[in-house]
Design goal:
Elements lengths: L1 H20 L6 H44 L8 H6 L7 H11 L2
Helix pairs in contact: 1-2
Amino acid sequence: MTVVQTAWRVGKDAVEAGTNLLPGSIPRPIARIGVTFAAVSIALFLVKSIVSTAFFVLAMMGLIYLGFLALNPKEVTGSTRADESEGSPLEDPVEEARRIMEKYK
């Protein structure tokens, strides 16, 4: 709750500072509304740009990964069904090492 109160205070101070930059011929309530509208518009534009960039990067990463999987199907690990369908079920690494050592004795 303290963070929200601090952000509200900072926002009010920023709007007040922006209002003071405008000429005195503009009524203060209208100047305050205009500065608030401009600040909210800029903030929403920045948030939209960051979110859009993040989604674009995530989509490109997914597309590149799918392309990698399509071009390198044998490098996909963790798929026991693919190994069983080829006729060579996954063996215990210790047993496989013993078998190799027996072969070279």
